[in-house]
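Tutorial handout. Part one gives the primary structure; part two gives the three-dimensional structure as tokens.
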Amino acid sequence: MHPALHSWREELPDAVVRVLAYLGAAAVLSIAATYLFQPPATGIPDAPVVRSPWVEIERPFPAFNLSIPEAADMPSSYAIRRHVVGHGRKDILGLGEPDGTGPYLQVEVYRPGTEVNFLGDPRADIAASAAALGPVAIVQSAEPLESKFGPLTIVTFDTTKGVTRRCLAFVRAFDDPALQISGWFCQGGPDLIARSTLACALDRLTLLAAGSEPKVGALFAQAELIRSYCGQRSPLMAPTPKHRALWNAAAGR
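Part two.
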């Protein structure tokens, strides 16, 4: 036979041929094992990551103030959140321990940007804002509460996360300027915060800086003209006199 017709396999040592055969068999077995033991495809795509449309400002510059001298020893907080698309702004003021046994007051001033449908059903708005508390038994009152900002829509709910509390929530929206004031006042025990106590607390909400929004400044200036001074109805009593039921009585002291 002509040398060119010889197979190259015949010129390899038997040991090398065996090694190549073993390696080939191992590769086939590895591929088969990968196919057999991989988890079955469910056909359901991975759930998309849901990102909040709001981002928190790291060093907030307060535009509002909530001064309650009776609760001067209580922890307070101030946060500002911006809508990533519409550029609306939420100023969130907190007073008290969110997970404690004493009273807790939160007030949110929302100035919308170009985001649409910023005002919805009051119960839905409160449920969404208070989601961290696990609100249940959400009931809207038929009777509004008069305040220096006008009539407030009142919603009550109970919390299921953290310390069990009963909360009196409120919502008030304005068309011009586009602005919404909302929040809740919670306490432990079977009773709700008195309505007059909530109205008195909101008497203490004041504007520090309107920035480039003169209509917001005018709104708060008008609110001061009809301020009740926690029932005193007298500017001679300014600053608002201590209202013991506002914090100490609510805490059961």
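Part three, for discussion. Helices lie at 14-37, 122-129, 195-203, 214-225. The mean pLDDT is 81.
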